[in-house]
Amino acid sequence: MLASLAVRAAPVAGAEASGGTVTEDAASLYLQNCASCHGVNGEGGVAGPSLKGVGAASVDFYLRTGRMPLGAPGQRPQRQDPIFDDEQIRALVDYVVGFGGDGPEIPQVRAGGDVRRGWELYVANCAACHAATGAGNAVGGGNVAVGLGQATDVEIAEATLIGPGAMPRFALSQEDRDALIAYVNYLRTAESPGGAPIGGFGPVAEGFVSVVIGLTALVLVALFVGRRSHEGEPGSPLPADALTEAAVDEAAATRAGEGRA
Ligand code: HEC
Ligand code: HEC
Q: What is the average per-residue pLDDT within 86-110?
């Protein structure tokens, strides 16, 4: 079905070559690839929702992630290679926005967001569906919160604005959006503690190991504090200096070192 759509899109290139304006190209792209489901004027129909007021962010997201055009009515939109190039996507975005309504614009993103803040936001808002690692998850009703390994920065921002499919929308400040993007990028690139990425998302193991190290350190501290409070008590099973502060530090440092090695 995708192949046949691509074939049907072919004459458009001809229109371009014969000096067709951008508007004409956009119109024929839309009529050939979208109108059958979304209506000639984006009014919607049995096979697709109205596109009035969905906003540039939505059209851009659905086209760049290859979710649209849908291959056939009744299919579920899925992330795949886009069938349009940049220029065609821009033209289609403008064309659909021209149907009216005022949905969200394509968001601006800035590099260098606050990763720690992004982590907080991610854990609170995204991890339940996309998993702590970003690897994705089934979220019920046959919906899948896809892995976050592929989305570009702009696509991440767009997704939070438009809430594709079963995903809710999030009202985030630009700073918070940039922070989330920085954290999602961190999830992708952070190395796993063993040096070998695990399933493409190292931080699963990294998070796990840091919990283990953290707990070990806590247990050591608890042991130490426990001993100290028994110091001098008659019948205390161990000499007071059995576990010195230095020994605790050294043990913790060794463990931490092992974890990072
Ligand atoms: C075979 C039918 C079909 C075709 C062809 C199709 N769409 Fe869709 N489109 C749908 C359906 C169904 C949905 C709703 C998907 C969902 O929400 O799970 C949708 C959703 C969308 C959305 C999201 C709307 C929103 O509420 O945010 C956009 C944007 C969109 N389509 C744009 C396009 C464009 C642009 C084209 C042409 C390049 C296109 N679609 C072609 C069926 C189609
Ligand atoms: C209720 C579950 C849910 C929550 C919470 C949620 N998402 Fe999603 N998300 C989804 C689903 C489902 C999809 C796939 C939608 C589709 O394909 O139609 C998705 C898709 C995405 C995509 C598109 C990925 C791609 O490669 O195309 C991104 C990016 C994304 N989500 C980011 C986020 C971020 C960031 C948060 C937190 C602010 C978040 N999501 C919270 C369910 C959720």
A: 96
Name the closest ligand to CA 180. 2
User: pLDDT by residue (tens digit) across 217-246?
Assistant: 777 777 777 666 555 455 545 544 545 565
Query: From the CA of 121, which ligand is nearest?
Result: 2
Domain that holds residue 61: 2-97
Q: Is residue 205 within 8 Å of residue 192, measured between CB atoms? A: yes
The overall pTM is greater than 0.85: no
E strand residue ranges, the chain: 137-140, 143-145
- Same domain assignment for residues 6 and 90: yes
Q: What lines the ligand 2 site, CB under 6 Å?
A: 65, 77, 79, 125-126, 128-130, 139, 143, 145-146, 148, 150-151, 155-156, 159-160, 164-168, 170, 180
User: What is the C-alpha separation between 235 and 94, in angstroms, rounded?
Assistant: 83
- 137 bridge partner residues: 145
Tokens of 78: 């899925």
Tokens 């299919």 -> residue: 75
CA distance 198 to 119: 20
Q: Which atom of ligand 1 is nearest to the CA of 72?
A: 1
The reply to whether 170 falls in a domain is yes
Average pLDDT over residues 127-142: 93
